[in-house]
Amino acid sequence: MLKPGPAKKVCVYVSEDQQYHGNSLYAAILDYLFYRGVAGATVIRGIAGFGADHHLHTSRILRLTENLPVKIEFTEDAQKVEELLPKLYDMVGSGLVDVQDTTIVKPAGPTKTGTRPSGPSLKLEGKAKMMRIFVGESDRWKDKPLYRALVEGFRANDIAGVTVYRGILGYGANRRVRKGAPLGLSQDLPIMLSAVDTEEKLRKFIPVLDDMVTKGLVVLSDVDIIKYTPDYTRAERRKEER
Fold it and tell me: 131-159 in b/e burial notation, b at 16+ Cβ within 10 A?
């Protein structure tokens, strides 16, 4: 949580049509900031502008395709900004990142609903860790299914990959049996998420889990990587060029 005193304001300028792993770049940046615990961020859509290429972007009447400038702005303490900048530099590509000294006069308080809790490295060899998270299908976080929010959190924190499994029967610490009903009407089946990456990266994600998973089980296991996927960034680039 932000406190009164010196801080840093960061402004990231990108184009509306820039992509990051198949999603809008500005949305990917917002996800990254959100799941890294940034106190707050705002996306502002411009109506005209130009960048280093001196190509004018504007929203003129009757124009069918627009590529307008977008600004993502947030304020955080200097230490956290230093931690975030390397990844932001990698994400923005040809965009602009502007960091300014500022002062927090009055930090925003929590809302009534409560407070929050380059491409991913897919090439792994040798020893690693597997993280498994067990939750219920009906569990929610920030008005969305918890398992979906966890997948977004893993991706925003550069975890190499995650798979969601839906169980057909199970129970947890409350001893209540979760099972599918006839015709698949049940919405409270057991859910398991499985992610594999280095121990360092997975342990850095644990503070995020502490806030998101209030009831459930999280375990870490040793694994050996014997096969790994192709370079994700290169594959995405080839796909976009087609």
Answer: bebbbbbebebeeebbbebbbebbbbbbb
Are 132 and 198 contained in the same domain? Answer: yes
Element (H, E) at 12: strand 5-15
Task: Identify whether the C-beta of residue 73 lies closer than 8 Å to the C-beta of residue 88.
Answer: no
Does 48 map to a domain? yes
10-52: pLDDT as tens digits: 999 988 888 998 888 999 999 999 989 888 888 888 776 555 5
Residue 118 has which token pair?
């380059």
Shared domain check, 70 and 149 = no
99/131 same-domain check: no
Domain count across the chain: 2
* Pairing verdict, β 177-179 and 162-166: unpaired
Facing residues of 69 across strands?
15
Tell whether 144 and 192 lie within a shared domain: yes
Domain hosting 94: range is 5-104
Beta strand 190-197 with 177-179: parallel, antiparallel or unpaired? unpaired
| Residue 10 covered by a domain | yes
Can you state the percent helix, strand and coil of the chain, rounding each to 5?
25, 35, 35
